[in-house]
Amino acid sequence: MAPAKDFVDMRTMAYKSLVLFKQDKKQEGMTALREYLDYYSCSYPLVTFDDVESMWKSGQVDLPALEKLLDQQVATYDRDMYLDFFVSIGFYGRRFPGLLASGFMLD
Description:
There is one protein chain. By secondary structure, the chain is an all-alpha fold. The chain has one domain. Helices cover 69% and strands 0% of the residues. It contains five helices and no strands. The protein has helices at 5-22, 26-41, 49-58, 63-87, 91-95. The longest helix has 25 residues, at 63-87. The N and C termini lie close together (9 Å).
C-alpha cells in the first residue's frame, strides 16, 4: 500500500529547503521553507514550529539547528499520521473509523 500523500509532501517540502540551503541557494531555500511552514501550520505543529518560523522571519538560518528541527517535526508528523490512519488510535482514527478503508488520502 502506498503511503498517504501527506507523508510524502511534508518530508519533501522540509528537505527541499535544506537541500537548497546546502547548495548556497538562500533565496530559494527561504521560499521552500515558507512553503513548508504554510503546509505544516495547517496540521497540528509542534511547539518547535515557532523556532523554524523565527529563523525564516529573521532570515538568519542556523542550518544544523534547522535540520534537527525539521527532522524532529517530520518524524513526529509521520508517526502521528501513521497512528491515526493506519492503526486507528489517534484523533482521526477514533473519530472517523474506516477513513483509510474509504481510500481517503491515498495515492
